[in-house]
Design brief:
Shape of chain A: globular
Largest interface: A-B, 63 and 49 residues
Strand content of chain B: 5-15%
Chains: A alpha+beta (369), B mainly alpha (395), C alpha/beta (173)
Helix content of chain A: 40-55%
Number of helices of chain B: 12
Structural class of chain A: alpha+beta
Radius of gyration of chain A: 21 Å
Distance between the termini of chain B: 89 Å
Number of helices of chain A: 15
Distance between the termini of chain A: 48 Å
Shape of chain B: elongated
Low-confidence stretches of chain B: 231-242, 263-279, 301-313, 335-367, 391-395
Low-confidence stretches of chain A: none
Strand content of chain A: 5-15%
Mean pLDDT of chain A: 87
Radius of gyration of chain B: 34 Å
Largest sheet of chain B: 3 strands, mixed
Order of helices and strands of chain A: EEEHHHHHEEHHHHHEHEEEHHHH
Oligomer: heterotrimer
Order of helices and strands of chain B: EEHEHEEHEEHEHHHHHHHH
Number of strands of chain A: 9
Structural class of chain B: mainly alpha
Amino acid sequence: MFKTEELQINIGPQHPSTHGVFRMLVTVDGETIIDLKPVFGYLHRNHEQIAEQNTYLQNMPYTDRLDYFNSMANNQAYAMAVEKLAGIEVPERAEYIRVLMVELTRILNHAGALGFLINDMGMWQTQLAFGMREREKILDLFEMASGARMMCNYFRFGGVVRDLPPEFMPKLKELLVAMPAFVDELERLLRENEILMQRAEGIGVLPRELALAYSVTGPVLRGSGVPYDIRKAEPYSVYDRFDFDIPVGSVGDVYDRFLVRIEEMRQSKRIIEQIVEQLPDARGGHINPKARQNVRPPVGDAYARIESPKGELGFYLVSDGSPRPYRYKVRAPSFINLTPLGDMCRGYKVADVVVILGSIDIVMGEVDR
Amino acid sequence: MTVKIERGQIVTVERGQRAARRIPGLGLLDGMAVVWKHWAGSFRKNQGFNDIHGVFTFEYPEERPKLPEAYRNMPILLYDEETGHELCTSCFQCERICPPQVIHMTQARDPATGKPVPAVAEFVIEYDACMSCGFCAEVCPFDAIKMDHEFELSTAEHRGLTVFKEQLNRPISYYERIAPTMWAEVREGAMKKLQGNIKRRPDVIGMAPNLAEKIAARRRELEAATAAPEAPAAAPAEGRKLTPEEKAAKLAAIKAANAAKKGGSTVEPAAPPTEAAPADEKAARLAAIRAKNAARQAGEAIAAAPAPEAAPADEKAARLAAIRAKNAAKKGAEGAPAPEAAAEHPPAAGTAAPAGEAATVAGAAPADEKAARLAAIRAKNAAKKAAEGHDAEGS
Amino acid sequence: MPRLSPEELRERMARDLPGTVLEPTPLRVTPPPAHGPQPAPFVTTDTVVAAEQLVQAALYLRDTLGYAFLSDIAVVDYLADGVFELVYRFYTIEGGDGLVLKVRVPREAPEAPSLTPYWPGANLHEREAFDLFGIIFTDHPFLRRIYMWDEFEGWPMRKDFPKQGDKYIGADE
């Protein structure tokens, strides 16, 4: 028998599969992972400290840069936290527009995330290109409404910055026509693909109990079989008016997370269809006319959370009565979802690490803040 | 497996290959069919949002997609080509809201008096640190700062990304072209505010520096106005110069009216009308009547003026002035019954009278309006003086 | 399991775990101004527990009340009051509003028991709190800096951390 030795290697910080500058300190025995420690901080810019120097409104564009894939979702969580703190009402129409934007965000995030996951598996660019194509269309819609593709900065306290332009709805309806074909095709492309199943089935298993103890959220938690979706568990905004399902996995491996994301795109499409139906009857304008943008909330604290495409995104704000937040804390889903990475990778091969990391779907802007 | 919950259900996703097709390699081939379909589609152009096949890409830079109106990249400053004036008044709203603090400006000052003027002297935006959030365009009360659609800003010179006013200035027509409906929404208000601001800008302050001809023309105009103080030429120039004074006078009138009211209410019950009071009252009344007459005469002169389009508006203005004068005088009269105020009255009435005469004498219609206003202001001033005298006595 | 309001939680904890719940003292948040109107102090409606009994209280929430999901740990530096407040947020997977446990530790000796042995998900939260605020979590298995580099001195999110002019950033920047 050959004598084998444990070896410590770094995956990252400059590595194509680490989704940004992120390092994994891996201890391997041959090809098998014995231990994995994530190392963060390469993109750390002390977002929270910056936010405490800014006024409440000035933080809105900074939240875009947290999870730069889902700026609309970040905007909503932050706007909700400030509205809770300052007691600002949001008109019905604005709530519908917000939910519409966040659900579009969910579709584009999952389209991109699945593309990157497959990319990490070695199916270079094919799936990613299909996903990016759908994402581009949604970004076109965002650009129409907000003026920017990624850093939307669309939400304001009490609503959204401007109403949907007249050309928005026809385009959205066109998009909805193509959406089922896209999701079906995406599923057909890979769902039963033997190679993908070899790489994904039984890999990176996160059992239900462990998932709960690790406080993971979003598709990772649901992939482990916990039907916990804040949109259903604690309905915010107008989510209690829509019919939609919560897809859950049964094993908790990479494959389950993959399937849950595909199904979530269908459910988001269902929600958007209901919004298109209900939006013309919604009362109020796109913003509460009484809402002041330079808010000065009373002394107190507030926590608001939403189901962002990556999981529970929460903002904890403490006000001291001044126009700047005294404390501004982001509960970032990508960051917390990385906690179990070591446990998920232990016992698998080095090649599986990148797949498992891809299945968690992280954005380093949010992890490091 | 599904579990019913409120407004939906919990669906456990189906794993693995479907039972009917457990032939090894079929899933792979099925996926390949999708890829081939896309390959076949790549020979034609995509048909739009409802088409998921075909070529999606643009042949940039030859082919450029139309950017939506709301698109925002970097902030620019607007100026009005007709008057040559910049819309910015350096109110510092954008500087204050800018999250990365990249906007810097200094306010223009009148070289003669050193007082701040509603115009911007220098305006700097650090494009390299700008985060294109669009807050500056949102908060600008004068619609002077807008978001540009130009995105090809790459440069080999980093210093070139600190952008000064000359590079930031764009004509309104440029913005109107890139964002027609967004400009149409704000156009009226913006132009109105601009007209108001131009009146408060002396010399060529606030004019876009690249419009050399406009500036030269304005200079010539100003020189002509100062060199030849003839009645017809001087009238508009004088009128322009009067605007801040007019404002001050109005403010004074309001204050006077308030003071008079206050004085009247406090003193009258305390001191019943003395013998001196009727005389005072009389003087004040006289002033009021004179002011009224002057205003009326001015109004008649305008009504008879040859300019048919301007006439109704002018008449209205003159009438308004007359009413104001009347009211001011009345208020002055109400607050008058203090003995010391009497001394003030004859000159006050005296000033009102020549003003009225001046209004009747002036021939040109626009000058008439101004003259009428002037009369009203003078009457107000007279009333104010009366009130002041009264106030001093009362307190 | 029924969902509890903060008041009910305080009642139940006072009954089942005597001595754990502290009376929330009002916080001044900012130093009071020398003149002018005094701002109202911040009185929290959430449950404030003693630092020593935190683990006990958290396990009570998890095992007895079913609030098993530890969502967030936030630290707030109340400089004027001389305390760090740790805000623990628990949810049930059945849904609904969460419960909050707040722990106050003195600024001079910021020590709190770690929840990582019971909730492995608290690991990164606590490391972040250590890194940015310098809270020492006893029994934490790997309490190391997470965002800042290991040699970094100081706790950057504390309110008294210099905003400029420290040894890393020059005074002119």
